[in-house]
Amino acid sequence: MAAESSFDIVSKVDRQEADNALNQTSREIAQRFDFKNTGAGIRWSGELGVEITANSEERARAVLDVFKEKLVKRGVSLRSLEADDPKQSGKDYRLSATFEQGISQENAKKVAKIVRDEGPKGVKVQVQGDELRVASKKRDDLQEVISLLKGKDLDFALQFVNYR
Questions:
Q1: What dihedral do alpha carbons 126, 9, 68, 151 form, nearest 10°?
Q2: In sequence order, which residues have a C-beta less than 8 Å from that of residue 156 and are 6 or more positions away?
Q3: What pLDDT score does 164 carry?
Q4: How far apart are CA 16 and CA 13, in angstroms?
Q5: Phi, psi dihedral angles at 5 (to 5 degrees)
Q6: DSSP 101-161
Q7: What is the pTM of this model?
Q8: For 25-46, how does the pLDDT look when each residue is reduced to its tens digit (9 = 90+)?
């Protein structure tokens, strides 16, 4: 009898890569001419929050665009970043953004349904808190599930870990 192979589906943000992207953004807005004397800045706000400040709504959005560009270059999915609209706070505009981690119960059910309906037969999916475990006797079936989910346009980020 062949042993079962499995992998986990998670939705996590690599904090170090996000931190590197934030530091690169901070350096770039300090250097760029179009951000001079605009009071533009970006910093961490809590564990997974980012706060952007600037003297106009357009500048705050521009800093967010630079940050998104740096995240993409560092391999962090933009689907995990939720940004609010800029709000006026005194003379400055503040824009808050947070990184979403974990797969919600409804999204976990949606992924499990996709795997059951469109995936190969004999693949088992278990919801374990904010992640999913996919198991099968055949490793090829697991590879097929990974490529199936990568091909789907889901509105949240997925990573595949603990492939055994």
A1: -100
A2: 11, 79, 80, 100, 103, 104, 107
A3: 84
A4: 9
A5: -100, 155
A6: -S--HHHHHHHHHHHHHHS-TT-EEEEETTEEEEEES-HHHHHHHHHHHHHS--SS--EEE
A7: 0.85
A8: 999 999 999 988 888 999 999 8
